[in-house]
Amino acid sequence: MRVSKSRLAGGIIALGLVGGLLGGFNMYWGRQPEFPLYGVLIDLCAIPILIVMILYVRRIKASATDEFSVAKKRYAAQNGFLMGFALFMLSGLFPIVFPAAYLQFIASLDGAHEGFLMGRVAGMAPFILGLVIGQVSAWLKYR
Amino acid sequence: MRNRLKILRAERNWSQADLADRLSVSRQTVNAIETEKYDPSLPLAFKIADLFALRIEDIFAPA
């Protein structure tokens, strides 16, 4: 590990700031009746700088990461996905195991749009929970 | 996998951080190998053997 984590964090923050500013300004200029000439000039100068910054951050990321941290992340991701899928399958049993509670829940929804939003959240939640479980299991294994 | 990393390090009065610096890995990596929670990759095992001027099988042994 030749580069410290703080240097990598600084690089990522700087990259995020430059990328965010450039994206924000371009969105603003894009909404003007005509894209300003100074915006084009700024883009011409800033985009190569952004590319160089991306390459630099990629390089320091490779230097700040070692095989053990990669192994930990891989373990967390694999467990997280498996747990997420298992929880997703389990959540599908809810209408079968608790039909009355399920019907009451469906009746409480205010129309198809709310049902759609609830479905999105309920479909995503097991995987988010799985990610957390994956991180915790990796931490417990390698602490 | 069992290993003699902790003994070899202690013989040289190196801290985990010293050894990590010499191997270009994190201190957590050295700790995980010493506590046998993690088996190093073959390139890292060669690097460790090279650093201690020993053969891999003199440092690592099957559990």
Report on the structure:
The complex is a heterodimer of chains A (143) and B (63). Chain A has 143 residues and is mostly helical. Helix content of chain A is 87%, strand content 0%. Chain A is built from six helices and no strands. Chain A has helices at residues 5-30, 37-64, 67-91, 94-97, 99-108, 111-142. In chain A, helix 1 (5-30) runs antiparallel to helix 2 and helix 3 (67-91) packs antiparallel against helix 6 (111-142). Chain B has 63 residues and is mostly helical. Chain B has one domain: 434 Repressor (Amino-terminal Domain), CATH 1.10.260.40. In chain B, 59% of the residues lie in helices and 6% in strands. Chain B has five helices and two strands; from the N terminus they run βαααααβ. In chain B, helix 2 (16-23) packs across helix 3. Chain B is globular. Classes of the chains: A mainly alpha (143), B mainly alpha (63). At the A-B interface, helix 3 of A face helix 3 of B. Chain A: Keywords: Membrane, Transmembrane, Transmembrane helix. Chain A: The chain crosses the membrane at residues 12-29, 35-57, 81-105, 117-140. Chain B: This is Cro/Cl family transcriptional regulator.
Describe this structure in a few short sentences.
Chain A is an all-alpha fold and 143 residues long.
The count of domains of chain B is 1
Shape of chain A: flat
Q: What's the overall average pLDDT of chain B, rounded? A: 93
First-to-last CA distance of chain B: 5 Å
Secondary structure topology:
The complex is a heterodimer of chains A (143) and B (63).
Chain A: H1 5-30, H2 37-64, H3 67-91, H4 94-97, H5 99-108, H6 111-142
Helix pairs in contact in A: 1-2, 3-6
Chain B: E1 2-3, H1 5-11, H2 16-23, H3 27-34, H4 42-51, H5 56-59, E2 60-61
Antiparallel strand pairs in B: 1-2
